[in-house]
Amino acid sequence: MISIKGLTKSFDSLEVLKGIDLEVGKGKVVVVIGPSGSGKTTFLRCVNILETPTDGKISIGEQEIDFSRKVSSRQISSFRRLTGMVFQSYNLFPHMTAIENVMEGPVTVKKEAKQKAAEKAEYFLSKVGLADKMKHYPFQLSGGQQQRVGIARALAMEPQVMLFDEPTSALDPELVGEVLKVMKDLATEGMTMMVVTHEMRFAEEAADEVIFMADGLIIERGKPEEIFSQPKAERTRQFLRLIQ
Amino acid sequence: MYLNSIFADPDRTARLIDIAQSSLEPLLKGAIFYTIPLTLITFVCGIILAVLTALARISHIKLLQMIARIYVSAIRGTPLLVQLFILFYGLPTVGITLDPWPSAIIGFSLNIGAYASEIIRASILSIPKGQWEAGYSIGMSYRQALTRIVLPQATRVSIPPLSNTFISLVKDTSLASLILVTEMFRRAQEIATTNYEFLLLYTEAALIYWVICFLLSLVQGRLEMRFDRYVSR
Ligand SMILES: Nc1ncnc2c1ncn2[C@@H]1O[C@H](COP(=O)(O)OP(=O)(O)OP(=O)(O)O)[C@@H](O)[C@H]1O
Ligand SMILES: [Mg+2]
Question: Which segments constitute the ABC transporter domain (chain A) (predicted)?
Answer without folding.
Answer: 2-240
